[in-house]
Specification:
Number of helices of chain B: 2
Mean pLDDT of chain B: 76
Radius of gyration of chain B: 22 Å
Radius of gyration of chain A: 14 Å
Largest interface: A-B, 36 and 23 residues
Low-confidence stretches of chain A: none
Largest sheet of chain B: 2 strands, antiparallel
Structural class of chain A: alpha/beta
Helix content of chain A: 55-70%
Mean pLDDT of chain A: 94
Helix content of chain B: 10-25%
Number of strands of chain B: 2
Distance between the termini of chain A: 19 Å
Shape of chain B: elongated
Shape of chain A: globular
Oligomer: heterodimer
Strand order of the largest sheet of chain B: 1-2
Strand order of the largest sheet of chain A: 3-2-1-4-5
Chain lengths: 132, 71
């Protein structure tokens, strides 16, 4: 495998809905064989929450299972947590709405030497973040 | 063909493969008798479109979701 990618909740949501963007992302990162796919555990919780709010409780388990089986689930390790803290401060200098979850996602990607796949505006200008 | 999920753990240069008891019984595997183990890459499961037509699509926006409210 030549590339490692952390897929953010946004990316999984697009893929789960098979939107035009989701299709592109899936073909490039998930269905292709040359990419190692990583998902931060926090993203699983976010996807589950969105489904619950949409009244789709029954879809939570199959969706999380499918995401889990499509790659590797990353826990927030000490290394990732430590990298998240200064990153949150730095990202907030650019976008005041940056959340801790945003920082954790990018920190996880950087700790693993991966690109982050996300469309969140707080990552604008970051070289290792892609939305396609 | 029986399917086993193998979690390889390298121990002193060897590879330990733990087999479910039910599989050992069914296949008649005995201690000391060599068996052939094939490692096959499973195709990735389908994620794309799992929610299509089932859940109304609204883009995921971490901030709009209110999961992590700003202080």
């Amino acid at each position: 495998m030549s590339e490692t990618a952390v897929l953010d909740s946004w990316a999984w949501w697009e893929i789960l809905h098979d939107t035009p963007t989701g299709r592109q992302l899936s073909l490039r990162y998930v269905e292709g064989s040359g990419v190692k796919v990583l998902t931060v555990d926090l993203a699983l919780a976010e996807v589950a929450c969105k489904l619950e709010r949409a009244g789709s409780h029954a879809a939570i388990a199959p969706c999380l299972r499918a995401i889990e089986e499509a790659g590797e689930v990353l826990p927030i390790t000490r290394e990732i947590a430590g990298a998240s803290a200064p990153l949150l401060v730095a990202l907030r200098r650019v976008d005041a709405h940056t959340s801790l979850a945003d920082a954790v996602m990018l920190a996880a990607a950087r700790v693993r030497g991966a690109v982050l796949v996300s469309d969140d505006p707080c990552y604008r200008g970051e070289d290792d973040v892609r939305s396609r | 063909m029986p399917e086993v999920t193998v979690v390889p753990k390298r121990i002193g240069g060897s590879l330990a493969v733990f087999l479910p008891a039910e599989l050992v019984r069914r296949e008649g595997i005995e201690e000391g008798v060599p068996v052939r183990v094939a490692v096959v890459n499973r195709p990735r499961p389908r994620v794309r479109g799992l929610l299509k037509g089932k859940v109304r699509y609204e883009p995921f926006d971490r901030h709009a979701e209110g999961l992590w409210p700003d202080e």
